[in-house]
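Service request form, structural biology core

Requester: graduate student, group of Dr. S.
Request type: structure prediction, single chain
Budget code: on file
Notes: please return the result as structure tokens.

Sequence provided:
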Amino acid sequence: MRLKELRKQKNVSQLKLAMDLQLNQNAISRYETGQREADYATLIKIADYFDVSIDYLLERTDNPNRYK
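Core staff response, request fulfilled:
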């Protein structure tokens, strides 16, 4: 998942992201290291937060644009 890359591009700490998404910082860390996979609702929250598509977030495409 491109979570760490997106988070660093926006200069957002794991703690800030976790607070903004009402998640645990440990969950963010585990998503970034691949130790845990986000559920569908969390993927939507993360994609909305960074204004990217879920496919981009999951590295299924290199196009970050959301389809509207």
